[in-house]
Amino acid sequence: MTAAPKKTVLIVLRHSPYGSGLAKAALDAALASAAFDQAVDLLFIGDGVLQLQPDQDSTSLGIKNMGRRLASLPLYDIDHVYVDAQAAARYNMDLSKAPLHTRQLDDHEIHQLMVCYDHLLGF
Amino acid sequence: MIYSLLVLSSPFSGHCSRSAAQFAHCVIARGHTIHRIFFLDAGTLASAASSVSAQDEDTSLRSWSELAGQHGVDLAICITSALKHGMLDQVEADRHERPCATINPLFTVSGLGQLVDACASSDRLITFGG
């Protein structure tokens, strides 16, 4: 690591948890950022809200349980997690049972959030 | 301005990997700097040394080669994704007892720390694919 100034990063998760490797790649990037003491927050939008589905069971897929990995994020000081409220409503998600504590945002608030960061990483 | 790129999608599916290479060429042509291009997930397939394209199709490897060879751009591939996709340099091929290296030596196998560093060191980080 160089001694560059700290940048704030918002990781934007746009894809379902098991349809591709992107959800895992996003989590890996988030954990790496946290490990290097960078300020990183998460935003789930569109199909990405499905990653917050409660009681995920990926045993038959032979892939790690993404819900369980998400639940571990607060241990790495990743505490600010935002959700696209419209997408969550479209999928009829019960976010009170999601693996992470989240804050729901409408489109306007999502825009306001995005402009606050130095970098957006879209997965 | 200092740019870094994150490439997530395979060069064999869609246009994002190719767009990333073209974007990098344009950034340099405009007098800006590319700090690093980081390949993650299926993006690591861009480093495939022995993929064979149809004769009437351009291969994106040439575009990446120019960036690394002529402009000294750091092409870094995530080791976890690379191993999963069968992209190994000689060290990893030896370590995992595979018959040969499969990546073009212009690419370097590295960790996600290099993506974090790219975020910290660049004015703009642009994601391609996903």
Summarize the structure.
The complex is a heterodimer of chains A (123) and B (130). Chain A is an alpha/beta fold.
Count of extended strands of chain B: 5
Largest interface: A-B, 27 and 23 residues
* CATH fold-level assignment of chain B: Hypothetical Protein Ychn, Chain: A
How confident overall, as mean pLDDT of chain B? Answer: 94
Question: Main sheet of chain B?
Answer: 5 strands, parallel
In what range is the share of β-strand residues of chain B?
15-25%
The top-level CATH class of chain B is Alpha Beta
**How is the CATH topology of chain A named?**
Hypothetical Protein Ychn, Chain: A
State the helix count of chain B: 5
What is the radius of gyration of chain A computed over CA atoms, rounded to a whole number of angstroms? 14 Å
Strand order of the largest sheet of chain B: 4-3-2-1-5
CATH-defined architecture of chain B: 3-Layer(aba) Sandwich
Oligomer: heterodimer
Low-confidence stretches of chain A: none
CATH class descriptor name of chain A: Alpha Beta
The span between the termini of chain A is 23 Å
Structural classification of chain B? alpha/beta
CATH superfamily of chain A: DsrEFH-like
Helical content of chain A stands at: 25-40%
Order of helices and strands of chain B: EHEHEHHEHE
Shape of chain A: globular
